[in-house]
Design goal:
By secondary structure, this protein is mainly α. About 75% of the residues lie in helices and about 5% in strands. It has a four-stranded mixed β-sheet with strand order 1-2-4-3, sandwiched between helices.
């Protein structure tokens, strides 16, 4: 198993290098170009390419550092040294020692990535006209993001290590259940606890937009509890909308940027897409599929971890960097399956959107507006789409709408 994982790691590095240059090269074909020029100007395509290629060198450096960091942390011996050092500050409690270790590991990772985060999420976003944040706003947002993520990660990772200790050899079967429970709790709590930390929500009172949205909800069989608007414009010009809630009763959160940049019909069409996810139970299906997949990942980790750490049990918090690295490698190779399932769900939601609104032109105009507003690169490489893309390429979605036969749906 050791040689298998080493071979897999070498393949991971090779594929990362190949994918980086394929991403830079793109996947332009005559068919893609023919469709693109019908809806986008040369200036649109040029700006999208420039945005897509932004920070190429920094992106490579970031990937190298992310790859090396957990390995250096663990195999240098610093991980064990830190764990032993924290014995003096944990009052003899393994859980407290674990929490302190996790916080230090996450903080160091955050600090190493901070220059890249500033460059990509602030400097380049300003350069391309997306960010609305000052340096102060960005700093506050980044600290909130780190703090929120740290709390969530500490809870999840601590629960995982408690499971390792308590479940013994049966942890492989218990861990997926623990992770599923956390995912369900986070999905439920997100709009009530996490979202308010970043956004101010107000009742949606855009009269001309309301009627088409409620019409979509009625067609979809959704009892709308609330219709909210959140202030994405405080941070950026990106657009979105999403449903929350369980059962037939739902609330909708609409980004103010979506209303600003789109017509009432286009906003309703976006809502119809989200309704399609709800109608076909995609959140539930995603949770179930993720739950089943986590058994496979847990089994592979159980075969691999001890091979590289014969004197350190998986229940020892000092093994966290190694565990993180192993997880990175395996999830990279399972990514195509996750991406395929996600794209299938998006196609289903797009199809529902067309059936629900009955308006091909609005669907296409919404896609075109979305691509222009976000400077979306249209000539994505097909292999990268297969491996990583959670959504079908924009041109593929437009072509699907053009070919959609309303008489058969």
């Amino acid at each position: 198993m050791k040689m298998f994982f080493i071979s897999l790691t070498v393949l991971y590095v090779l594929l990362r290098v190949i994918f980086t240059f394929l991403d830079r090269k793109g996947g332009k074909t005559p068919a893609k170009e023919s469709l693109a020029v019908k809806y986008f100007s040369e200036e649109d395509l040029k700006k999208a390419k420039e945005y897509h290629d932004r920070g190429f060198g920094a992106s490579i450096a970031r990937k190298i550092i992310s790859f090396v960091f957990p390995l250096a942390f663990f195999f240098s011996g610093f991980s064990v040294y830190l764990s032993n050092l924290l014995r003096h500050f944990s009052f003899g409690y393994l859980t407290i020692r674990g929490i302190l270790f996790i916080l230090i590991y996450l903080l160091l990772e955050f600090l190493i990535n901070l220059p890249f985060q500033y460059y990509f999420s602030f400097a380049l976003e300003h350069k391309f006209g997306f960010s609305n944040m000052s340096v102060k706003d960005w700093s506050i947002y980044t600290l909130k993001q780190f703090s929120t993520g740290a709390v969530i990660n500490v809870l999840i990772i601590s629960a995982a290590y408690i499971t390792f200790r308590k479940a013994g050899a049966n942890w492989v079967w218990v861990i997926p259940v623990v992770l599923l429970a956390f995912e369900m709790i986070l999905t439920f709590l997100y709009p009530y606890i996490i979202l308010p930390l970043f956004y101010k929500k107000t009742n949606f009172e855009q009269g001309e937009y309301t009627a088409p949205i409620f019409k979509v909800a009625e067609i979809s069989g959704i009892k709308l509890k609330k219709l909210f608007q959140i202030n994405e414009s405080k941070y950026s010009k990106h657009t979105n909308a999403f449903f929350t809630g369980f059962g037939p009763e739902k609330s909708i959160y609409i980004f103010d940027t979506l209303v600003k940049n789109n017509s009432p019909e286009e906003v309703a069409s976006v809502v119809a897409h989200e309704a399609g996810h709800w109608k076909h139970h995609h959140v539930l299906k995603g949770l179930i599929l993720g739950f089943l997949g986590s058994f496979i990942i847990a089994f592979l980790i159980s075969l691999t971890f001890q091979e590289f750490s014969p004197y350190l049990k998986i229940s020892n918090i000092a093994g966290l960097p190694l565990l993180s690295f192993i997880l990175t490698i395996y999830t990279f190779f399972t990514a195509p399956v996750d991406s395929f399932i996600s794209r299938k769900m998006e196609v289903t939601a797009d199809t529902y959107e067309l059936k629900c609104t009955g308006n091909r032109e609005v669907f296409i105009s919404g896609m075109v507006r979305l691509a222009k507003d976000n400077k979306a690169y249209l000539y994505t490489n097909d292999l990268l789409t297969f491996w990583f893309a959670s959504h079908p390429p924009m041109l593929e979605r437009i072509k699907m709408a053009l070919d959609f036969d309303f008489s058969k749906n």
